Amino acid sequence: MKKIILTLFVMVVVMLGLDIPVKADEYSGKDTIVVCEDGYFVVSISETDPATNFSATDSRSTYYKTSKKTYTHYNDNHEKDWDVVLTGSFYYDYITSVCTDANADYHIYNTTWQMNYVTPSYSGNTARVDYSFKRYLLGINVATVTSYFTLSCSPNGTIS
Asked: Looking at the DSSP assignment, which residues form a beta bridge with residue 118?
């Protein structure tokens, strides 16, 4: 009897430690929700590459990191309209940090929206993307969303 109880206890402990899959459209605890006039955005940041030690010169190590930030636009019915993904590449050494590259991509999920422009850039320790999307109904522009967002790396490698 003790063996059965112990086995059941171990099974419960193991099951509690397992990850439970969720739908991709659900928000993670790290997401930020921003409400705007025509719907809302969900902002998420993910580090795509772990920090790698790039060099050890002058007794100081330099690390390299690539991260992404995604802005997803939803409508009032909680359906995805479109998203913009900014990817930034950074070097940091705990004294300073610098952005070395910025790329941007977009996806349209609601065919009433069209991309007007998506333009990445970088300067200092910050990657930036300027974007504009337009919504058309029956060939008439009924909404325009124009904005930008940034992705930065601190000297200690913290992405924001």
From this structure: 131
pTM of the model: 0.72
Q: Which CATH number is 30-152's, of 2.40.50, 1.10.3470, 3.40.1000, 2.60.40? A: 2.60.40
Closest CA to 136 of 81, 72, 71, 70: 81
All structural domains of the chain with their residue ranges? 30-152
CA nearest to 153, candidates 103, 104, 99: 99
Check residue 5 and give its pLDDT: 44
Confidence at residue 18, expressed as pLDDT on a 0 to 100 scale: 32
pLDDT < 50 regions, the chain = 2-29, 56
Ramachandran category for residue 151: left, alpha or beta (phi over 0 → left; psi -120 to 50 → alpha): beta
Question: What single-letter amino acid sits at 37?
Answer: E
